[in-house]
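User: Structure tokens for both sequences below?

Assistant:
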Amino acid sequence: MKTIPLSLALLLTAASAQAVPVEKPNVLFISMDDLNDWVGCLGGHPQTLTPHLDRLAQSGTLFTNAHCAAPQCNPSRTAIFTGIPPFRSGVYHNGQKMRDVLPEAEIIPRYFSRQGYWSAGSGKLLHYFIDTASWDDYFPAKEKENPFPPTYDPPHRPVSLPVGGPWQYVETDWAALDVSDEDYGGDWSVTQWIGEQLQRPHDQPFFLACGIYRPHEPWFVPERYFRPFPLDSIQPGPGCLENDLDDLPPSGQKMGPNRYFAHIRQQGQWKQAIQAYLASIHYADAMLGRVLDALENGPNRDKTIVVLWSDHGWHLGEKQHWQKFTGWRICTRVPLIIRLPSGMPGSEPGQVCDQPVCLTDLFHTLTDLCELPAPENISAHSLVPLLKNPDAPWPHAAVTQLSAPDEYAISTRSRRYIHYRNGDEELYDIATDPHEWTNLAAQPEQAAQLAQMRQLAPSNPVPLPQVPVASLPALPWHPATEPTPASKPDGNTFDVVFINQRAHPVELLWLSPSGSTHSYSLIPAQQRQRQSSRPGAVWLIRDASENLLGHFQIGDRSCKAIVPAP
């Protein structure tokens, strides 16, 4: 009987091992939009109802000190899906487009697809686009680049909050809708499609991403989600303090109060808004429950990693602020829950980790969990050591980038530091002051602590790139045959790019609130002019004979205004 040489036997064994691929875990990647810490397991508001978020936390690891990469949708989601923080990518604010700044960046679904996964998604995951080439499948159809399925919208808007001026975001509104979950569509349709994917067997591992849009504005959800929150019982968030701005530096005092909160209070709508946010969270939680039930009752239950996150938090009066965009904890701290299949290291249920972590680290965490090589350019930090041991050494801080390279917030295990572009600073002891009511930065005894926090700042951040004119939203052109409205400039300034597509020069004039006109410049034929303006301002366009050609009424953000050829 012939024997096989040892060297040949080893080669045959290696070939045999390669022929039987190791089964990789699936990934279910769930986002919730604009959700702060008003979650039962995070204790952010005593009236919130989030049974499904809570049950997911009880079955996995809850990160109680997780922070977004930026307190805006676009830079936050870009950082999550590329693994690159804003101060390295240059994506700092919502006015940018990810592909303008990072045309070649590979995002998570595309990476997993190259590694043999089926990558699919539904709902809002990136900032109002899908990125067609990065997904194997999507609902709605990825070719349309619109991540939103049909959603019921009240026929007459606004419903609850009158528009305070041109500065107001059109979606800042709320109402209890007399529709069923299914008739409402939106997140119901998204979670229906995701549930169908989870209910069927797959012949390859999957990366499946689910974007639940609520509690993003407008806070329109079916009426039954309002019922647990009677209006007369509504409480402000526990972080609200009337005189909370007194110890802030000038930059913080400017960042805090905004006209949204003042307008909402003036209209007597603060309680109604809190009620609607709680109802929207309750609705989003119910949609999460549909997804978890589909997973747990289907064939993929025991081999799927679940990751749940929110892109940033939300102010509802804390620091006299409404919306997002700030470096305070109510805006940067987000829910983060990771549940691993039984048997994987770190799968012990009910773990709680209070180490400072950043959502930018999720890409690397997933590559480690799925035993895939991490791309070279992504965050070097993986959360796997903390999943295995929530108290493991963790020498990292979580950095949240604001809308400029030299503005940021830093979170450690017990401290928070905010740095503004003019050098203003804030420092908080989160262990004793979780709502950041006492700014310690001016206290001499905190000098050493301040110096330590400064050392954690991002080094050599990339400059803020200018948004290409082609990517700016276009204002409607109103020809001279239409009436000219009154000019009511109101709000912060931003740039508007006026583009003259005519064969002759045109004159650009500002219409003042009193009705007088002020000439600013001549825009040569086929040329453009960048001009600072404010929401509600009206700009007139005249020809060389001083004949009025038309006008533009400025909206609430940077844009382009195209003077069309006749």
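Moving on to the next sequence.
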Amino acid sequence: MHLSFCLRCAFLLATLPTAAAAVAIIPAPVEVRENGGPGFVAGIETRLVWCQPPADMDPVAVALGDLLRPLLGQRAVGWPGETTATNAIIVDFNAAHESVEFKKLTSPEAYELVVTPERIVIHARTAHGAFNGVQTLRQLLPAEIERSPRPGDPAWQVPAVTVRDQPELQWRGLMLDCGRYYFTPGAIKKLLDLMALQKLNVFHWHLTEDQGWRIEIKKYPRLTSVGAWRAESPMRGDRRRGDRTRYGGFYTHEEIRDIVNYAAARFITIVPEVEMPGHSSAAIAAYPEFGNNDVPGFAPEVQTRWGVKPYTYAPKEETFAFLEDVLREVMDLFPGRYIHIGGDEAPKTQWKNSAFAQDYMRRHGLKSEDELQSHFVGRIAKFLTANGRTLIGWDEIQEGGTPAGAAVMLWRTSENWTSLGPKPAPEWKHAMAPLKAGHEIVVAPKSHFYLDYYQVDPRESAEPEAIGGLTTLADAYAFDYLVPGLTAEEQGRIVGLHGAIWAEHIWDFPKVEYMAFPRSCALAEVAWSAKERRDFADFQRRLEVFQRRLDELGVNYRKAGTIPRQTIQ
């Protein structure tokens, strides 16, 4: 058996490409250096070794064990040991073993990966850093390891390189809109797996909308028995007509806990979004008493068409009590720091026409409906702060004053952009006030990282139906979140970059994949890699290799080139 193994290794050493050609990591690391020599051959006798592992090492051990499973026929088990072990993959948390170069990297997510013919060593300070190193190691292995079932060849080559790396931004996120269309727990998990591969670490789960309420709230069962179902959806290809098919679905507490744990095992934090005060038709259809039921024509329903709808929560004490009850269950399900409350596109018409809302404004000294929205969001922010959480909302939450301690998700960065025109430089007028006031900002630019837009001009290629607009891969990659004129402290308050998959015209998971990939790869690199490390031509080279991995994973990504004019779903 050993002779056969050695012959296979010799064949691999003779036929594999050089390290320079083989290294194609997304997102681009801080440093990649060739070490020379043939690299490391992982085979059936390769061991896993831990050196001073932290208590939360289990996800790293599972990820490494899964990588070696094809070689061993089972998940590999790691053992305590030293960094001198041979034919081993070693994860080392001993600070005394850090190189001078690694000590210069300060992020808790930093790692150093050293590959020699004798061993692979991942140096890290945290389990998250080690997990990032495992994802890089995964990309150094041949794409065929992703197959299911996996190949039977008992030896793989890893190029002899040293990779040192850390992220530029601590929040690297992706949002999926499940309010318009429901995606199964299995689909959510696949997206989380693909996020982890790219070192994205925040999943923003958009769970409530005018067209559907997707999260079980045990105290208010009508939110799902009524609010999770609409009479029909817009017809595919003709959004003005209905398809006459009842549609809905929701996630139970048990499913949500399972998904939260699944994400945590990949060092991904889930940020749930429960919309208020607008985008609330589904909730008000379930519980009309929490809406502005004194306005003419009040007849709430779970909406069957897209677009901004007039139904907003009424500023009643009963409404605030209801929302606090909802948020208590949300906080119990999602342990992360941030709770997203939406706060965008809240029409003021019902408040203007509601005698109760107008009286509430007078009693609280509010001079306009904008101030009422600020007051509304501020009450929710105080409740979340009192419970140890941080409110985050779309940038409209700053209108009337950003609530103390809240974070802002900035989507309006290019208001002068026309949907199929060239991308202008980002505009930062909606960011300056909260940045100057000390609030954290997560940039989610509509113009560059709303992934429901066309990625190839639909006038030239038969693209699936999209909401409109054009954001090419090159457009996405070109985004720059550095704001001119800020101090270093103010720029440091931009903590994250975020992409959004809005689902008005994305009705199944293969289409989610088509719209997200490869543009999410650009998002991952812009959020992780320093500006001086980013080069679009080199990114395209690495993307060609990365896409072979997506092929093996069965991802329905958008391939390069135009599609002939024909019907495409």
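User: Anything stand out in the second?

Assistant: Residues 478 and 536 are 8 Å apart (CA to CA).
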